[in-house]
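Sharing in case it's useful to others searching the archive later.

Someone asked me privately for the predicted structure of HMA domain-containing protein, so I'm posting the question and my answer publicly. Question first, with the sequence:
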Amino acid sequence: MKEVLVFKTSINSKREVKVLKPDLNKLIANNGYWNFDLEDCDNILRVETQRVTATTITSLLKNHGFFCEELY
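And my answer, the predicted C-alpha cells:
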C-alpha cells in the first residue's frame, strides 16, 4: 500500500527542482510519484511511495543544502 508523505521545504524555484529531479527520480524510481507545489507558502513536496521513508527524503534535500521537514 502506498503512503503519501508531505514535506515543508525551502525549494522556491523550478531551477532548484531541476537540481533535485535526478536524485528524486532515482530514489522513487518506478515505485511512486513526487511533485512540488511552489505556489504553496510552505513550498510543499508530496511523495507517494511504498518503500521510501520520510527520513531518506529529508536527508536527500538536506544534503543538497535545502530545508526539509515532514508535515503530519
